[in-house]
């Protein structure tokens, strides 16, 4: 029977209209008032929803293909649940909310049921999956050590083989150990704000209490000598900080390795032999060294050490500025003032000290021209040192 919506039919209507309704009914067409039509439509929709809900709760599947077929049947654009929307559009406005809630509940139940079936199928597949324990696994890319770490460890190993022990001091230190005990004058440029990162400045009458980021690892030697008596043979690796503009040749932080030997009858000859051994261990047995007079507040006499250029073999190139030599470190005999400041009798003991930049040594060893590459964490650059591990 076809239902046509129409108004409530009054008892008193014209004969012409009665005849019209009669003719319609003779064709099997029934005229219903709107409220009855909407009521029947709502009941019909709810019955469909209830039937589908029962179907959904009883769904079963044994593999992923069956789950996909169920999804297409119920939840796809042309699925059975979405087909309800055609009738839902004709539901009376005041009844849409109640019917809509039931449709959404049906959708949610269907989705939860399919998820449950998928989880069961995945678990079953995993339990029955075959594992070949003899199969070669996929290779995993391994990380590499940072080039500065590689060179730092190599420097430490060389000096440890020569009898030096490892000591590391604080990166945040005071003026006393970084400057005063190392014979830096009160007006020395290194104490200025333009060269050093000061964290806390004390009263101007006592600058030794200033707190700062150490500008060199020489302060570690002062810490050690303050608490130990000779013989002393240590190396002090660590990070240091300078208030400098970052460029290809300078950075606001870098790494140093400081060395100290204090004992009776220590001479400059001992220093030269130790540094020659280091240079040949690090850069090759044919490496030559030369010592040039220099100045450092904490050593006297002082020198800078050059090695023969490992790129041109000492013949001259752009890297060594056509001199055949490349500077790598500073050194000298420990100033008696430094020994006395740390409680060591300078009339009995002498010593030597040296300090080198790890970045500088790494540049020479691996021919790296830009300091910034060490701190940019470019994995393409770092990956080139895999064989050096």
TrEMBL record:
Show the coiled coil region(s).
42-69, 100-127
- Please give one Pfam family short name: tRNA-synt_2d
State which residue ranges cross the membrane.
20-38
Reactions catalysed according to its record: tRNA(Phe) + L-phenylalanine + ATP = L-phenylalanyl-tRNA(Phe) + AMP + diphosphate + H(+)
Detail which positions bind Mg(2+): 300
Instruction: List the cofactors.
Output: Mg(2+)
Q: What are the recorded Gene Ontology BP terms?
A: phenylalanyl-tRNA aminoacylation
GO cellular-component terms in the record?
cytoplasm
Spell out the molecular function terms from Gene Ontology: ATP binding; magnesium ion binding; phenylalanine-tRNA ligase activity; tRNA binding
> What sequence ranges are listed for the domain Aminoacyl-transfer RNA synthetases class-II family profile?
151-364
Tell me the protein family, please. Answer: Belongs to the class-II aminoacyl-tRNA synthetase family. Phe-tRNA synthetase alpha subunit type 1 subfamily.
Q: How does it assemble?
A: Tetramer of two alpha and two beta subunits.
Under what name is this protein listed? Answer: Phenylalanine--tRNA ligase alpha subunit
Q: Which organism is it from?
A: Prevotella sp. GTC17254
Task: Point out the gene that encodes the protein.
Answer: pheS
């Amino acid at each position: 029977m076809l239902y046509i919506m129409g108004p409530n039919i009054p008892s008193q209507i014209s004969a012409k209209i009665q005849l019209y309704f009669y003719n319609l009914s003779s064709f099997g067409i029934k005229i219903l008032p709107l409220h009855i039509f909407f009521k029947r439509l709502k009941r019909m929709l709810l019955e469909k929803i209830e039937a589908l809900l029962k179907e959904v709760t009883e769904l079963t599947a044994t593999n992923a293909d069956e789950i996909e077929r169920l999804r297409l049947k119920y939840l796809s654009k042309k699925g059975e649940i979405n087909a309800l929307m055609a009738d839902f559009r004709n539901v009376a406005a005041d009844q849409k909310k109640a019917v809509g809630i039931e449709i959404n509940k049906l959708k949610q139940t269907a989705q939860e049921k399919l998820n449950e079936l998928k989880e069961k199928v995945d678990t079953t597949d995993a339990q029955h999956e075959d594992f070949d324990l003899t199969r070669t696994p996929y290779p995993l890319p391994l990380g590499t050590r940072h080039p500065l770490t590689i060179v730092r460890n190599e420097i430490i190993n060389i000096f440890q083989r020569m009898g030096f022990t490892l000591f590391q001091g604080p990166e945040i230190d005071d003026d006393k150990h970084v400057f005063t005990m190392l014979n830096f004058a009160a007006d020395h440029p290194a104490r200025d704000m333009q060269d050093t990162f000061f964290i806390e400045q004390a009263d101007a009458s006592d600058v030794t209490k200033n707190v700062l980021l150490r500008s060199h690892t020489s302060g570690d030697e002062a810490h050690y000598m303050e608490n130990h008596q000779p013989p002393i043979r240590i190396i002090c690796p660590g990070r240091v900080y300078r208030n400098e503009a970052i460029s290809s040749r300078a950075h606001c932080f870098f790494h140093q390795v400081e060395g100290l030997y204090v004992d009776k009858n220590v001479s400059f000859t001992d220093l030269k032999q130790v540094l020659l051994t280091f240079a040949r261990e690090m850069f090759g047995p044919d490496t030559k060294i030369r010592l040039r007079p220099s100045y450092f507040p904490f050593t006297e006499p002082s020198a800078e050490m050059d090695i023969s250029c490992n790129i041109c073999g000492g013949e001259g190139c752009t890297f060594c500025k056509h001199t055949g030599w490349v500077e790598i470190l500073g050194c000298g005999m420990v100033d008696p003032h430094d020994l006395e400041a740390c409680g060591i009798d300078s009339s009995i003991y002498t010593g030597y000290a040296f300090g080198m930049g790890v970045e500088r040594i790494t540049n020479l060893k691996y021919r790296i021209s830009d300091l910034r590459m060490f701190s940019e964490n470019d994995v393409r650059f770092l990956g080139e040192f895999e064989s050096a591990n």
